[in-house]
Design goal:
CATH architecture of the largest domain: 3-Layer(aba) Sandwich
Oligomer: single chain
CATH topology of the largest domain: Rossmann fold
Helix content: 40-55%
Shape: elongated
CATH class of the largest domain: Alpha Beta
Number of domains: 2
Distance between the termini: 130 Å
Length: about 425
Amino acid sequence: MMGSTRRHQNQPRTRHTMATPMSDPPASPHIGRYVYAVGGIALGSINSVWGDFATVWEPIQAFGDRVPGRHPLAYAAAACLVLGGLAMLWSRTSRAHRRRILGGWREGQLEWGPRPIGHMRSLYCALFATAVLCAPAAAQGRFEDLTRAFSYDSAAALDVRQQDSAVVARAVVHDISYASPKGGRVPAYLVVPQRAAPFAGVVFVHWGQGNRSEFLAEAVALAERGVESLLIDAPFNRLGDPNRSKPGPEAERDGYIQLVIDVRRGVDLLLTRGDVDAGRLGYVGHSLGATWGGVVAGIDHRLKALVLMGGLPTLTDLDFPDPLVRQEAHARTARALAAYTRVMSQVNPVQFVGHSAPASLFFQWATVDRYISKRAAQAYFEAAADPKRQQWYYCSHEFNDPRARLDRDSFLAAQLGLGGNQ
């Protein structure tokens, strides 16, 4: 027995295996996870290009731009989507097969159970490369989509009509109007220097509580330095405008779009006169004019220099410095506020002003401003492309500090090559 036992112990052991027929594994019940993961990576890549949340379905839009650190938060959320998607793809092959995965990574192939599921390293690299390569095109495509609302037929007739004219100092002030591509007519003052051409050309847009007369004295003074100016009325100041009485946020948005287009048509008007140098065009906007001047700067690169006085980077930021203004802004219901935010987010100036180059921008801010917070001012300035500069004045939103006018006239003189008074 001892010998027998020893003999059995010395015999080599054999491992018996049962042959099992190889068959294709059933469809993975986790295919939804893979689809969700890849979708998360794609959405995260797109949002990282936009630098913001989706304008329609993400609940954060109801808060507008009042969310602290909104854009950094958007980038963080985009990173979470991408990393979360990658983690889901990784986790499906991680625990039980970690050693096999790492080996497969080195070999360029990962396995699920006994059979390979694909070259996951290649998938990761392909997704990353696609995001990187598509980012510039996606950003440009999105910007083109945004600017499409501000397009118009530049070949259409301006149909300029003059109602009156007057000689003031060394300028002729013409009371005119021209056709708006969005309907109705644009009332304007055309201030022409009484001196030899060519002239620099400047378009002026007033604040919300004013009209085309706001910059009239300044335009007459600039005429003595060789500037031909066009000062227009915003759509809501036009009694005969067909869009003036339409209700709702869509109508308000369309009015702003019309204002931007009418400014661009104003540039067309100056250039058709033949006495304005196309290489010396500028823009001055106050409040309303400064807000939508950011859009003008981003989409119309005929302008060489722009002065933006106390404008808002977005219409959906309701955190006004003045408590009364802030209370009135928040008087709307949550549903109405969400609808307003959804509509206005499509045209917020902060999305355009970053495309202002090569134009030079001069931002002017009031330290005691009822409507523009320092946070909003800084956000607008930071969003703009270079070259740019800013200056603060100890005054109200009306900019009644005389240094503000001197500074913007000096800026225009330097940028547009203005001479002295003649």
